[in-house]
Amino acid sequence: MKKQLWSLACMLLPFAGFLLTCLGAYLLSMQSVNDFLWRSIVIYVMIAIGLLAMLFGVFLSLLQFEKKKKKCQRSQEYPVSTPQVVVPTDGIYIPMSLAPPLYSQNNSEIPDSSWCWEQPPPYSQAVQMQQGQRQQEEAASAH
Predict the structure, then answer these.
(1) What ranges does the record give for the region Disordered, renumbered to this chain (predicted)?
(2) Is 64 exposed, middle or buried (0-12, 13-18, 19+ CB in 10 A)?
(3) Which residues contact 41 (CB under 8 A, 6 or more apart)?
(4) Which of 16, 40, 70, 91 is deepest in the core (most CB within 10 A)?
(5) Containing domain of residue 135, as a range?
(6) Nearest CA to 50 among 73, 19, 11?
(7) 63 belongs to a structural domain
(8) Are residues 53 and 89 in the same domain?
(9) Per residue in 17-32, pLDDT tens?
(10) Is the residue at 58 inside a domain?
């Protein structure tokens, strides 16, 4: 209930500030030259309070929106775990992660589905291997 009242206040504050500013501007336009000075001061204070209420209400609304946005983003984060397999090697259990396929620039290549326990090569080595394959294909097509 408290959050709903806060949301209502955040929405009504800019509107109330706008009304207060408009009312002050209207009273200022209706004022004659012979009116009292204190009435002019009250009208100018009313306009200033209306403008401040509008700015503060917009600030609170944006702050509340950012809170809701962050809350939604936090609820959409999913934990990601990488598969890791423990393999016995010479009586010692070694944790090994599953190796991804060789790197490709456009991801259009179908990855090799053969099972591999070795660690993937570094990116620079994978690029050199692909460049070497391209050069071999170009040499074969040139003949």
Answers:
(1) 105-143
(2) middle
(3) none
(4) 16
(5) 84-103+118-142
(6) 19
(7) yes
(8) no
(9) 999 999 999 988 887 7
(10) yes
